[in-house]
Amino acid sequence: MGSGEGDPAPEGEAGIARVFDDWAGSGRGEGMEAGHWPTARQALDDLPVRPGERCLDLGCGNGYAARYLATRCAPGVAVGVDLSERMLGLALARSKEAPNALFVRAAFDLLPFPGASFHHAFSMEALYYAPDLERALAELHRVMAPGGQVACVVDFFYENRYCHRWPEKVGLPMHLLREAEWVERFQGAGFQAVRADRLTDPRDVPADWAFPRGDFPTREDLLRWRREIGSLRIRAERPKGA
Ligand SMILES: C[S@@+](CC[C@H](N)C(=O)[O-])C[C@H]1O[C@@H](n2cnc3c(N)ncnc32)[C@H](O)[C@@H]1O
Q1: I want to staple 135 with a disulfide (CB 3.0 to 4.6 A). Which of 19, 109, 185, 200 is the partner?
Q2: What CATH code is carried by the domain that includes residue 193?
Q3: pLDDT tens across 124-146, in order?
Q4: Is the CB of 59 under 6 A from ligand 1?
């Protein structure tokens, strides 16, 4: 899996870029899109995006969510941010029909945007990689417009027992937080109306899939994750007066 099979990844952002460059090169940008879309789409559709607004996708991978937001916010823009040049290459190559989907190489903890730039922010399966999560959330708060809405979705959280071995499999440090801790971190960064819920994946498991498969010893384990544990969504707003 990723660079976990080769030399250990360097620390910090260089390691993140290397692992996800490898993933992009081995087709995992598209694999993640296929895997994440059923829950990502629910979170994206719940963001009240209006034409002309500006949207941010933190850790955009192959850019599918930024493209989807771009169709909804036109003539506004959707900006995907990622550290991996090769993921950004995939995102650009797939976005020729979406001129208002823009992609920028940057780290979560130093976003190259003025304050109050975005009306909506989305992030799928990315924020827990931030080497300094507190600083990344402070940056997210800074770039959100007053009243701006955030939806952060993660599958790597404590209550999902199937994910606990990911750091060793992926070869990168990750923040394994409980649901309540995610809420506290967003509140600590100054967000209000912070709430957590779960997004489930209604897909059936194909009859010809063999188990054990990935993180799942049995078909019942995979269904339990998709239907009962689900993906953790944190929603938050930047206060209007802040
Ligand atoms: C697991 S992938 C998810 C990609 C996409 N959101 C999806 O749903 O398929 C995480 C992405 O976040 C990016 N990423 C991780 N840590 C980052 C950081 N500190 N700054 C910027 N990008 C980061 C990675 O390069 C990678 O493309």
Answers
A1: 109
A2: 3.40.50.150
A3: 999 999 999 999 999 999 999 99
A4: yes
Per-residue pLDDT tens over the stretch 9-44? 788 999 999 999 999 999 999 999 999 999 999 999
Give yes or no for a contact between 147 and 115, defined as CB atoms under 8 angstroms apart.
no
> Ligand 1 centroid vs 207 CA: distance in angstroms?
31
The three-class DSSP label of residue 80 is: strand
User: Does residue 151 line the site of ligand 1, with CB under 6 A?
Assistant: no
Which residue range forms the structural domain that includes residue 27? Answer: 2-237
Whole-prediction pTM: 0.95
Tell whether ligand 1 has an atom less than 6 A from the beta carbon of residue 129. yes
CB 206 within 8 A of CB 164: no
Scan for tokens 């660079």, then name that residue.
Answer: 3
Contact of 134 with 185, CB cutoff 8 Å: yes
- The domain total for the chain is 1
36 lines ligand 1 (CB under 6 A): yes
The answer to whether residue 242 is domain-embedded is no
Q: Is residue 51 part of a domain?
A: yes
